Give the backbone structure.
Amino acid sequence: MTLVTQIEYRTSWGEEIRVVGSVPEMGGSDIVKACPLTTSDGVIWTFSKDISVPASGNIEYRYILFKSGMPVRKEWNAFPRVITGCKNGIIYRCRDSWKGLPPQQLFFSSAYIDCWSRCKMSKPVTHRYNRSLIIKVYAPRIGNECVLCISGNQDSLGNWDIQKVAKMNNAAFPEWTVELNAANLIFPIEYKFLIYNTKNDEVVEWENTYNRTINDLQIKSKETVCISDLYANFNLPLWKVAGTAIPVFSLRSNESFGIGDFDDLKKMISWVSRTDQKILQILPINDTSITNTWTDSYPYSAISIYALHPLYMSLGKLGLLRNKKQAEYFSQKQKELNALKQLDYEAVNKLKWEYFSLVFKQEGESVLNSVEYQQFFTANEDWLQSYAVFCVLRDKYKTANFRDWKILSEYDSKEVERLSSPKSSIYEQIELIYYVQYNLHKQLSEASEYAVEHGVALKGDIPIGINRNSVEAWTEPHYFNLNGQAGAPPDDFSVNGQNWGFPTYNWDVMAKDGYKWWMKRFQKMAQYFHAYRIDHILGFFRIWEIPIDAVHGLLGQFSPALPMSKTEIEQRGLYFKEDLFTKPYIREYFLADVFGNHTDEVKEKFLERDGDSDAYHLKPQFDTQKKVEAYFADKMDADNVWIRDGLYSLISDVLFLRDHKNPNLYHPRISAQFEYVYKMLSQYDKDAFNRIYDHYYYYRHNEFWKDQAMKKLPKLAQSTHMLVCGEDLGMIPTCVNEVMDQLQILSLEVQRMPKQRNCEFGWPGNYPFLSVCTISSHDTSTLRGWWEEDRDRTQRYFNNILGRQGMAPEHATPDICEQVICQHLSSSSSLCILTFQDWLSIDANKRNDDIEGERINVPANPHRYWRYRIHVTLEDLLKADDLNNKICELIHSANRDREF
């Protein structure tokens, strides 16, 4: 066949359009072999070549913009162009348009296409007329009882008679196709698309545009012309959904084993579906087994970006033990653990691994010899093997810090291969880990498929960081800056900032292979999820990097950043006193304010006087926060904690920080206005510092950080079909909204944390459509908990936001909680995802009496035990008709249950 493609693209000097496709004549999908198009005017580009028809009869292709021989822009490729039913001896002419991100990309995500759309699929049509005109159009929002049709000024299009419209084929949904016999066409053609309800036999919606036109195409014998890359335009109502956020570990059922598991996830999906919700959001579920103690309960510190956490295995689905005594033992332990109010991480972990070992001896050989397992292993071998060896060595040496191992402290792929071979002494342990990961994959895949069947999208969570003692830090250290720590500047969560302890990324290295590490991570997640939340999306613009010797986030600086020279600081009005501004400011006059009756002890043990002045400096053994932390590690009574925290504050009492890479450049220290060094400045110097501070933190980096994000996020956001949501709370530069809007990444809106400056509460009616709104999150108190935290703030919320008169009640009553939820359900956000705790707050009989026990995390506490479990079983929840019907009513009243 002869393939001729044509695309209109206005290029600049040095630019050209190339095409790459699935056949050898088009480069075999290898961008390096992309074929150049020809042009006479730099606007209309044409490719023409004889093509050998592949066995499948289908050809995929896409366009790429090259400049100076390098690819600089690629098309949106979520749904590639496909020529179907190719035959020898025909000419196939394609009139294409450049495919950028589609309008309302939400409706092209796997969340919508796979879970929410109920459009019936057509069977593929392979028929071709001798002379054919094919029209292709994208239209994802077509209801279950509807079909996309085309009507126009041709007999084959019904001549605008709505009883004779031509129905289109959606075998390649969300793309719709119609093939017309060109021999019967009279040019020019005028047409429109419309939605037709086949059940009621009526037109639901016409396109809201002028008539589309096609001028004379002169289609010859044995020639097919295809017009593609169109988008239907309809005035459809806003399509919004509601959902629930709950960690898997928090689920409770009659069958679970002291912790929520992947089979419980199916029950939770059933409840979400029962209450007319459309999305279920969970926290990260990757393996976090660092110490095998309760400190591993923190789900954002994974040891593998691929491995699933063994704790989420459903033992009942894994297999029953044939030994009755063993079975009875575990049955009794199951009852004991399920009766606990909160999760006992260590007991559950220990018992589940005992069960894994026993059932593996019983079932392992047959499972590992199965075709399904072999397929899983082949698809995942590149990470699974290293992960398994890592786990065995971690347990052998009692530490995940591979630097302290006696062997393989530096990764060696050949040695890992040897240890993974059947002849290895640890091979049985390796196989057990393979077996566990295979079954976790099976169970999570089943939950994902169950979600699709019930019209529920499963939303996962991608942490911004990894543990510095993780498989990836061991196998791919070149991707990370292991001498830094990632965290966050001070915000509503923590006045001292947050130090997550994760290494930061070496983005320059990652860019060299096209961010392959991230692409693989996202694509692995897409096997199970239909939407995902990017934890701390600001990390793709810049990360808050904290020195390795610091504990608090206050000593961090943005990376990458544009630090300031001494000359620039002085040009902006502040005379730069290097020793005074960059070293801890410690003076006699305020030590008593910091240490109280411990002042003399502190001066004697930890400080040294600078000559005869009233200034002090810290003794060398205490001059970093990490040294102080180590000294007080086993001294945790109230007095010592007071002294420790005071020493932390002395160390961070500086006005400027030296740049991590260039010590002759400086960053104004975050929140320095609260420090003694700032307070001692003259008013003139304070004003100068504030101008420098505001410029640095709110204006200086905007375009710089935008450029950093646009190097990474477009490629990553488009690497899968998942719906992309970003957690964009905290100190948000202007460029974040610009980039997220451009890439159609949904923002996160939390009413008590408004993004508008000088605004106490957000107003849900003003939220953008491309957003997720919520009342609470895993990092905040629940609605009921927040209500009791600050009486004055609650009163203002009660009067100004809820519009109620008089004094606010002491507790958030069910009717107040219902009003707040209704306000959020009625918001402009496309997704309203509420925590499980907040949903239950509307029911006096079902809400938890223990408000504080419902809180999942306190970000200011890095040693928090993540152990919250719901107080009702999922079986009882599914029977709670009063609550469930109430939720359905609220969702229906807010129009968050539309079909399309």
About this structure: The chain has a mean pLDDT of 94. Residues 544-698 form one domain. The first strand starts at residue 2 and ends at 8.
